[in-house]
Amino acid sequence: MRNINYLITGCIIFFSGCNNQPQVSQGDIATPVSVIELKKGSISRLINTTGTAHPMNGVELNSLMSGNYTLQVNPRTGRPFRLGDRLEKGQLIIQLDDKEFENSIAIDAKELNLEIALQEQSKQVELYEKGGVTLLELRNTEVKVTNARLDVENARLNLAKREIKAPFDGYIVNLPHYTENVRIEQGKSMVGIMEYRRMYMDINLPESAIGYVRADQTAHITHYTLPNDTLRGVISELSPAISAETRTFRGKLLIQNDQLLLRPGMFVKADIIVDRADSAIIIPKEVVISNRQRKYVFIVERNTAILRDIVTGLEDENNIEVIEGLQENDNLVIRGFETLQENSRVRVQR
Questions:
Q1: What is the mean pLDDT of residues 222-235?
Q2: What is the value of pTM for the model shown?
């Protein structure tokens, strides 16, 4: 019986000793967090679309007559023209020669006929002023001059068919190979030329965007091969009609490509700026906690987490504008906020 009393007494002493150990309060634990000091910035609401970049000017020139092929020398390089060479408007690229064709034109004879007709007209005018010829005879000489001038112009137009010239400034994008001095038949492809310092893309936008997108709005143009470069685009045209099949509406976007970073045919992304806020409080979207219709974040004041309800505005892919609830220079918690509660102790990590 005495042994049992000792056992019970020992148990009481044991449990009493356990209860006397110091207890650690959950509020005494400082949660490690990372913060950023808020500064004002700019944010834009964007509507995204994709499309193919096309050159503003592009042409494929064919031979307008048969003749012997001669590829001209590029004065910039001192060698025959090649793919990628820069062209100026009116520059001769290819010459087609055909002596029989040139002889049939008889340009020299036509120019001589025009000269004779002009001399005769000058004499008839003098005679008419003196009463030596009638008005009808004077008109007949004018008809001869007109016909002679048309003959010369037509002859020059026909002779111009021998020359393949650049119709605008641009670059050679297609140049089929032909052996020098080999006869080329009419209708053969000679050269392809494009000017792509200014480009355009056809766009299709969702029906929901029709109230936001307008002509002359700016867009950021990007391509996966240009991770560090963004080009400027402007909406030039918009259709007011919605397609019943796709529920989209069409438009055209002009792209400024002065550095030739984009190439014709590239598939590009356009972020159209439909709204913009400057001098605004901008925070990462990922730190916003949503609970029903409530949005809030945590800031740090004197090593304490303070809950702030916020009202948000514009947002882009990564950030969101805060209209109410935060101020410049607030220390916003960006890491470790998931487990925080109001007035939690925190330890800011740098």
A1: 90
A2: 0.69
